[in-house]
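Sample log: Inositol-1-monophosphatase.
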Amino acid sequence: MTSSPESPQDLLKLAVEVAEEAAHLIVERRRGTITVADTKSTLTDVVTAVDRESEELIRARVLQARPDDSFLGEEGDDVVGTSGVRWVVDPIDGTVNYLYDLPTYAVSIAVEYGGETVAGVVVDAPKGEVFTATLGGGAFADGKPIQVSGATDLSQALVGTGFGYDPVRRQVQAEVIQHLITKVRDIRRIGVGAIDLCYVACGRLDAVFERGLNPWDYGAGALIAAEAGARVGGLNGAPVSPEMSIAASPELFGPFHDLLAAANPLRA
Ligand code: IPD
Ligand code: CA
Ligand code: CA
Ligand code: CA
């Protein structure tokens, strides 16, 4: 761990303030009509004006308070600063839920120092639930400590996952799901990668996996899950990356990983 000249708690405080302000904005905007403003990697990969407005708000607030920091946002902001601190932001995680008014979507902010995530916040905007963590400082939901389920039996595990927008990856995902569904209690597709990880952190899911998540999807949630006692990683000892993210109650991680590896998700 690179020691930060500033306190992760101070970084978290700003992250929470800004994430709550953005969460309030996106919930307010949802009272009006939400339409697709643009598509990105594929026709199903949509963006709304509110995704962009939320990112603008977060960038403005963060860089106003900390002008020397770097800032990476899903909707295109990539500011390179000099302080060693980088903010990695998903202004609406769960845009498709947001578009359809399904009441689970989030604002996710991870704060890195020297490339390592030291603080993270995920705000479930419609619910107002706030998940937080600092490196070595534990994980919390609405200020109360949280921990993983402690599940040990894969056959009784409730597993979360998601599907990216890339059709080739979706084909692989379909095959993996087919392999998995008879070996676990059940599978949930909530539609919000950051929330999936927070749900492992607080025991609402026993394990999650997804291929194709980006740092703004998993940055905060991976820290929150790890600080809640989850084992978090990729395939074959790799760290979490866009290639694969897995988080699970510690005793489940090994068998869950092996099941995913046997389903051969590396083919695409
Ligand atoms: C998506 C959500 C979804 C996951 C996708 C992500 P977005 O993020 O987290 O749950 O399955 O892979 O891209 O586009 O709604 O911010
Ligand atoms: Ca996302
Ligand atoms: Ca997003
Ligand atoms: Ca998106």
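Observation: The chain has two domains: 8-145, 154-267.
Observation: Residues 50 and 236 are 38 Å apart (CA to CA).
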